[in-house]
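2024-03-11 09:14:02 INFO queue: dequeued item Asparagine synthetase B, len=405
2024-03-11 09:14:02 INFO validating residues
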Amino acid sequence: MVASANFILIPMDAESQHDHLKAYGITYWVLNKQHKVQWLLNYRGGSFLMADDSDVRKECTIRGVSYEVISNAEGESILEEIASPSQNMEAVILEKAPKIAVYSPKGNLPWDDAVTMVLTYAEIPYTTVYDEEVLNNELLMYDWLHLHHEDFTGQYGKFYGHYRAASWYIEDKKQAEALATKLGYNKVSEEKLAVALKIRDYVIGGGFMFAMCSATDSFDIALAAEGVDICEPMFDGDPSAPNYQAKLDYSNTFAFTDFTLERSPLKYEFSTIDMTTKRKIPMDLDYFTLMEFSAKWDPVPTMLCQNHTALVKGFMGQTTSFDRSEIKPTVLIMGENRSNGEARYIHGVKGKGFFTFYGGHDPEDYQHKVGDPKTELELHPNSPGYRLILNNVLFPAAKKKHQKT
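2024-03-11 09:14:37 INFO prediction written
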């Protein structure tokens, strides 16, 4: 941090911050101007510290973000407190604004997905990519990739049971088949596998991948089923491979292992990974707990768990949460409902890159259904569930330093 007369502190505790979500947008905006920001992990909810600038003050005022102007001495005092070995805090330097890609069908509206919704609300720019861009190696232009609620298995989201006669389902299937043909594939499942393999390579090469809802488990299922036909005739025109369950290769997956696929095309479920039908939690008691990590020794999960509360309201989706018994031991569980044996928020390393999987569809819409109205984030500017998404957005901006563990 350059020495200056003053610092701007953007507090992120529950009491001081008027709009937590737009605060991330301010931080991104400052990084985009080639200025560094310090992310004060575990200090007042994960606050941001930057050099004082009249433009930053003005932007905070315009966007409704609370900020405090503090003296150079006060700033140094805060950094000294954070550096103390007795404090579970750390100051992480954010160096550059990450280039963000959202993998999403072109016809999707921004409010079809929690990530595009919160990026739009926080005023963080992103580029939409889909299968053609991925297969053309365009992911190499981006630091961070979000997977929309996609089905990488070629089973059209397992919507067949409820929606096979719906005009949107018929149209989506027709468009997916046309795209697969255009790209030179005989089946949608083969084309989606090729996309999943490109995304896998992007992460192994050093990319950051964030996925929610059904993009999490369907991605891993597609990798495990490489070369195995798990699609029934209504999806791809021919029978599935005999005894396909025994042919899955769990060593290919990112996060999940030993899961059993749901064979019935009439069931709105991919596998035993998801806890939606297994959970017995009433809505008013549906919360998950964020894990506490050592900020100085484990800055990565600490960064991803920054919040003004350790208790986050649960929310459902096609894939609501993950069965703990089917998560690989190398994967870090960052948010869980222990009494129910479920993980909500997990993180892992793959090659030189990272991935985060977050269960559920929309942190402020408990049971989002097809056709439901969009969430108005103006009503939820302090959403802890949405903060977790934005932690992941800023994560690639962090200056890399040698890990102690």
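2024-03-11 09:14:37 INFO annotate: The mean pLDDT is 93.
2024-03-11 09:14:38 INFO item closed
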